[in-house]
Write a structure and sequence with these properties.
The protein has about 750 residues and is mainly beta. It folds into 8 domains: about 40 residues, no CATH class; about 80 residues, Immunoglobulin-like (Sandwich), CATH 2.60.40.10; about 70 residues; about 45 residues, no CATH class; about 120 residues, Trefoil (Acidic Fibroblast Growth Factor, subunit A); about 120 residues; about 110 residues, Immunoglobulins (Immunoglobulin-like, Sandwich), CATH 2.60.40; about 70 residues, Sandwich (Immunoglobulin-like). Helix content is about 5%, strand content about 40%. The strands form 20 sheets. Strands 34, 35, 36, 37, 38 and 39 form a 6-stranded antiparallel beta sheet that branches. The protein has a 4-stranded mixed beta sheet with strand order 5-11-10-8, with no helix packed on it. The relative contact order is 0.06. Keywords: Repeat. It comes from Gonium pectorale.
């Protein structure tokens, strides 16, 4: 600082704050019209920090374990006369664990100007012969047969270490191995020189070979229908071991041109002696090609008899429907009608109630019998094909009689059930109609006008109700029994908002001033099960368009906000399931029921809730939600024996059990490698590593070296270990590479 008396003005040859070169610079300051003075500014040349001591001799220590030892080296200091204390980093730092062998330590001191000084020395850990090195247990050489048509195949193997140390195998277990080649697998423990090897041979795929090759046999008949012949062919496979040999017909079979034992009741020579006459047993029919008796799953008319194939049971399902099943072939075999087949067969029973196995049962007039209608096709009835009274006629589907029409004999069946059971309740009849209308118009954006949609809906419902409520015995329909579902106007999806109020209109009158638009209307009618469907022709005539029954075979689409719930509780607990919704291409929405339902008490452990969406045609789709209730842990002194579970069980009114946990945590890293460029060793923040556990929910993770450590130039493996409360652990390796110039 330059100061003058009496506040006199002055000038200096170099102003304060100027940039001065290295060396001595003389500054002269002059008072205006008066005295002058000089002083020297000395700028020292930049110098890097200086280590103290200047060097450290190599350090030699004995190992404290089979892997190495933690080494603390002498205190190292660095000074900088001009910049103050520099930043000092050594890698590896003092106190680190050093593996057996030589490790170079690099220390770098950096001052505020960025000038640095490096010092290096070596730490040698001498192996202690009393410690046993960790080792690997390798599998025996592996030989497998390759997959046909493939060039490689995955091979898994098990290598174990005698201690908790990281090791690497190349190729790894689960990797792809070339077919028709022998590959050497090499494994080594990190930081140890020993290499372990075994061979994996993948042979080319070859089929088994009969040894000896079978030859034709000529034997004399030893029974009326032929001969019982025994044989035992053998085969070998050099790669896969002894193969399974199956013969058809099997050795020792009783010959029969009519099929298997039990498939026929008689098998006799014909009059000419060159053929056989077969009489098939119940539940079997002659094959059209071979004429032998085979199991028959088709449903055919037959003369009544007190036999097992004519014994059926009716299983109540949902929505006043029944499954018709028989135990003749299989206890889970039920009557099934496919949408596109038009006939009835037996098929394995669907435990969730497939719509093609569920039937509405209506009593025929005068209690002469019943008709059966599939849920997916409620206007169709099961019938004897061609109304034939002949034994063997197949069963098919045909149109049910319409309301007040006569029921044909081909559709009437005698069923062992109570008429009162099957006549109560309602069913849903789905229909479609495509018509031209001027009652609906489009907005400027091309969407159907909402007011016109509501007006059309009101008039259309009134029209359907008035036409189908006419006639003797017809039900009285109203807005509540008719719903408009999936529909379009001029090919644009239209929402009729069927929840709005119902206003009566006498007629759907066309407006001649508005253009006619095509409207494809889907609608459903709630109809009594006891009554046959209404006549579509009557409604078609009034609408000037064809009204058709809708055959709906499309399943709803079910969506849950999440597919799992996880809670902690001492005992079983009531659980609210996540929201589950369902959409449908015809009914728009479908109700969803869950088993167990939301709000139920779920036990400790994992329970699967099955949620089922069911549309009006019986089509369903399910979604599963996993509900897991986890227990609790107690921190307890090692010196004391465990507490009494029975005391807590009594208070909780539930059984408290010790948890035996043998499941490893699941470890996840955001990335499995880090690559940086640096002229020197550098501190590295490892990627985020987390661990989840099936019982403890989370598990702490520790990494060696830890995140933030100084990593040397080159490649280093950081091993991160997750350890749960029961001692189960899992490790994950992260590769850290520092690339210099």
């Amino acid at each position: 600082m330059v100061a003058v008396t009496n506040d006199a003005a002055f000038n200096c040859s170099s102003e304060s704050g100027s940039l001065f070169p290295v060396g001595n610079t003389t500054v002269t300051c002059q008072i205006a019209g008066g005295a002058s003075a000089t002083f020297i500014v000395a700028v020292a040349p930049p110098t890097p920090p200086v280590f103290s001591p200047a060097t450290i001799p190599d350090i030699v220590v004995n190992s404290t374990s089979a892997q190495g030892a933690a080494v603390t080296f002498p205190a190292i200091d660095a000074t900088d006369a001009m910049s103050g204390p520099p930043m000092l980093i050594c890698n590896p730092p003092s106190g680190s664990f050093f593996s057996v062998g030589n490790t170079q330590v690099t220390c770098i001191a950096t001052d505020r100007l960025g000038l640095s000084t490096m010092m290096m020395f070596s730490v040698r850990v001498v192996r202690d012969a009393s410690f046993v090195d960790p080792s690997l247990t390798m599998p025996a050489d592996i030989r497998l047969e390759g997959l046909a048509g493939a060039t490689t195949m995955p091979v898994t193997f098990n290598v174990t270490a005698s201690a908790d140390v990281p090791f690497t195998c190349t190729p790894p277990s689960g990797g792809q191995f070339s077919i028709a080649k022998t590959t050497t697998v090499r494994c080594s423990i990190d930081s140890y020189p020993a290499v372990y090897e075994f061979l994996v041979t993948i042979a080319e795929p070859t089929p088994p070979v009969f040894d000896p090759a079978p030859t034709d046999m000529v034997v004399a008949a030893n029974m009326p229908l032929g001969a019982v012949v025994s044989y035992s062919p053998t085969a070998t496979d050099a790669e896969s071991g002894p193969p399974v040999v199956e013969c058809s017909p099997p050795s020792g079979s009783v010959p029969s041109p009519c099929g298997d034992v039990g498939a026929f009741t008689s098998c006799t020579n014909t009059a000419d002696g060159f053929d056989f006459g077969c009489v098939c047993a119940d539940g079997f029919a002659q094959d059209s090609t071979t004429a032998i008796c085979i199991r028959s799953l088709s449903l055919q008319q037959a003369a009544c008899a007190n036999v097992a194939p004519q014994s059926f049971q009716f299983i109540a399902t949902t929505s006043n429907t029944y499954s018709v099943c028989t135990a003749t072939v299989d206890s889970l075999t039920c009557l099934t009608t496919a949408i596109d087949a038009g006939s009835a067969v037996f098929a394995e029973r669907d435990p969730y109630g497939a719509p093609d196995q569920r039937f509405y049962i209506r009593p025929a007039p005068n209690n002469t019998g019943y008709t059966l209608s599939p849920v997916q096709q409620p206007t169709k009835c099961l019938a004897v094909e061609g109304a034939s009274p002949l034994v063997g006629a197949a069963l098919t589907l045909s149109d049910c009689p319409r309301l007040n029409a006569a029921v044909v004999d081909a559709q009437v069946f005698v069923l062992p059930t109570d008429p009162g059971i099957v006549t109560s309740g309602n069913l849903v009849l789905p229909y479609t109609v495509t018509m031209q209308t001027s009652n609906i118009w489009l907005n400027s954006n091309g969407d159907p006008n909402l007011a016109s949609l509501l007006s059309f809906k009101t008039a259309f419902k009134d029209l359907v109700a008035s036409v189908w409520s006419e006639g003797e015995g017809a039900p009285l329909l109203s807005a509540d029994t008719i719903s408009i579902v999936s529909s379009t106007v001029d090919s644009v999806p239209a929402s009729f908002n069927d929840r709005s109020a119902y206003r009566r209109r006498s007629l759907m009158q066309q407006d001649s001033l508005l253009p006619l638009l095509p409207a494809a209307i889907g609608f459903v009618v709630t109809w009594p099960i006891s009554k046959y469907p209404p006549d579509e022709n009557a409604l078609s005539a009034v609408c000037s368009a064809t009204v058709r029954p809708k055959v709906d075979g499309t399943k709803p689409v079910v969506t849950a906000s999440v597919d799992s719930v996880r809670l902690e509780s001492l005992t079983a607990v009531a659980v609210t399931l996540p929201p589950v919704t369902a959409t449908d291409d015809f009914y728009l929405t479908a109700p969803v029921t869950c088993t167990p339902p939301s709000g139920s008490v779920f036990p400790i452990g994992t329970t699967t809730a099955v949620c089922k969406a069911l549309d009006g045609s019986g089509n369903f789709q399910i979604i599963r939600i996993s509900v897991t209730i986890v227990g609790f842990v107690v921190t307890w002194p090692i010196s004391k024996y465990p507490p009494d579970e029975n005391a807590l069980s009594a208070v909780c009114s539930a059984t408290v059990r010790p948890k035996v946990d043998g499941t490893k945590p699941v470890v996840t890293a955001s990335v499995d490698s880090v690559r940086l460029e640096s002229l020197t060793a550098v501190a590295v923040t490892l990627p985020h590593v987390t661990a989840t556990d099936d019982f403890y929910l989370t598990a702490p993770v520790t990494c060696t070296p830890p995140s933030g450590s100084v990593f040397p130039i080159g490649g280093t493996i950081a091993v991160c270990k997750a350890l749960d409360g029961s001692g189960n652990f899992q490790i994950i390796r992260i590769s850290v590479t520092i690339v210099g110039e």
